[in-house]
Amino acid sequence: MRRKRINQFLICVGLAFFLFVVLTPLYWSVVLSFDRQALANLPPLSILPNEFTLMNYRFAFTTIPLVRLYLNTIAVTAINTFISVAVALMCGYAFAKGDFFGKRFWFLFMLAIMMMPFESRLVPLFLQYNRWGLLDTWWPLILGSFSYVFGTFFARQNISALPDSLRESAFLDGSGEWRTFLSIIVPLSKPLIATLCILQVLVHWNSYLWPLVTIRTSTRQMLSVGVAMFNAQQDAILFGPRMAVAVISAIPLSIAFLFLQKYIVQSVAVSGIKQ
Hints:
By secondary structure, the chain is mostly helical.
């Protein structure tokens, strides 16, 4: 018993150390964003700002259209997340519980596409959207969300674990396919939906290469590209403003994770019926 407590104590100490290592740079970046001395030089590591100021944030907001970039990224991320997760759930349900011709072939074909890196499809996609006249719009960023292959695969694996008796009971009660999906599958897939949502928010919020290639107008650009442009156009180091931009860009991701983390660690198959 005593040895077990010692082992638990050592594990807690080790985890606390790694947590300290991870959080220290993040906390220091927040401190630098409020430190006047960080505008031109890198001050020594400190718990609180040496000279508290909001000048770094004002400098960042006046140098680039940060509010516009912020709203653009929120809008595109919200639209893409909704479309990709909804389509992935429907396709995953079809592959998990449906019965149609070529089901196995199309599932393997979908997995083969997932193994292709995006960079190998970038030039053909660019030429395609250029031929359609959709460059410098949000359409190239949105249309790709209808083919969320990993989400479809993940949804299919999780929905397959749900008991078939639930679906059969719904059909016996006169429920149709859509009502069964919306009334049974979706409520039981909340952890799955939360996981797919947080993954998609991370992907689209941090997306850089595709928006950089397809969007030319600065007022339509995404926040990740705007931050990169801000860092590239500054001759001085400007630690404070750069940290301010980084803190602002990380706020939505932190909020999304705080609200969705309890669903991510839960089991997807929540049912009281045994097969």
